[in-house]
Write a structure and sequence with these properties.
Blueprint: E1 3-6, H1 15-28, E2 38-41, H2 54-67
Parallel strand pairs: 1-2
Amino acid sequence: MEDYIVLQQDTQLSEQLVAAIQRHVKDVIAPYKYPRQIEFLSELPKTASGKISRRLLRKDAAATNATL
């Protein structure tokens, strides 16, 4: 399972950012719940009513895993 993050416009993607996100989740939520795979998107897919389309996220993740 992947976790998806949309960065703010002025934020640069780096390995330090990924490590900081993982460390934050370990500290705030629980060490075993930290995201092992993070995918950065420009925007999350939305339904017609404006909700996040989890179905499309799962479909994209399955397609990505099938090509590996």
